[in-house]
UniProtKB/TrEMBL annotation:
Residues 67-172, 173-250 form the DUS-like FMN-binding domain. Keywords: NAD, NADP. InterPro entries: Aldolase_TIM (IPR013785), DUS-like_FMN-bd (IPR035587). One of its GO terms (molecular function) is tRNA dihydrouridine synthase activity. This is tRNA-dihydrouridine(16/17) synthase [NAD(P)(+)]-like. The keyword Cell inner membrane does not apply.
Amino acid sequence: MRFKIPNLHILPPKTLKPLIPTSHMASLLATQQTFSYTPPLCCLTGESSIERTWAQWLKLGRPKLIVAPMVDNSELLFRMICHKYGADSAYTPMLHSRIFIESEKYREQEFTTCKEDRSLFVQFCANDPEVLLEAVKKVETHCDYVNINLGRGNYEAFLMDNLPLIKSLVENLDTIKYARMLEDAGCSLLAVHGQTRDKKDQKKVWANLDTIRAVKNALIIHVLANGNIKHMDDVCDCLEATSADEVLSADRKDEKLDQADLLVECLKLCEQYPVPWQMILAHVHKMLGEWFRIHPHIREDLNAQNILTFGFLYDIVDRLRELGAGVPLYL
């Protein structure tokens, strides 16, 4: 049985000197977690690509808690919030490599970052190695890893049927046999979802941690485990069960945070960092959606605005607070 195709990572061509913000492990974590891990000795003594990968990981502070990419949610604002509340690293949303190199407008809207936004994974979908290389060149000085998303049409999990193409993608920048091929091609880090591709859209299907462990045991490079992470305790359980080097998760961990307070915090970050208004609006609806369903007139007022301002959004929060908004209703 084939497991769901992993995400593929390569180090950008240039040597980077990232700035690492202080990790807060703050109020959404019930207890502070500490992790320690020493890379294999064979990976600390030379100049092979695998050795450089381990050296990069050590330089970045041995990140363990990594926020997976989510459509329309993983932009700069979201990543900065995640860093503040305990994430060691985060992904950008998936970027289309061809559109990224062809459209300056697309690049400006979809890829924003700052010096505090580290460590950072930039994710591309690609099926042309030359196009991917050009896209990577445009982000190499702004990130720590580039991720190739290997399952839509000729992308992601469905690329497993075209192994020569995947190998060419990795070499141009680069089940266990498949993982070893990726490692041999130059892959620096492998994120494994632990699901078969026919099950990937079924939310109640648990990831197979034994499969992830088998992949980890077969490789020298970093392996990220993705799946079954609902609470912080699951992080420790997953690391123990899989022997993975890091954990990747996109499930929300902020249910106990006051959503009105969190939105105010997000809006303040929006004023500080460049974020497109459509993304700000998406976060407003997702954070306050439960309250909008109870108070639809406030949502209607929001949707009726032709031009949004931060003052108007702060006023929305104040109005909801007066109506008793706070923690999510589903708790």
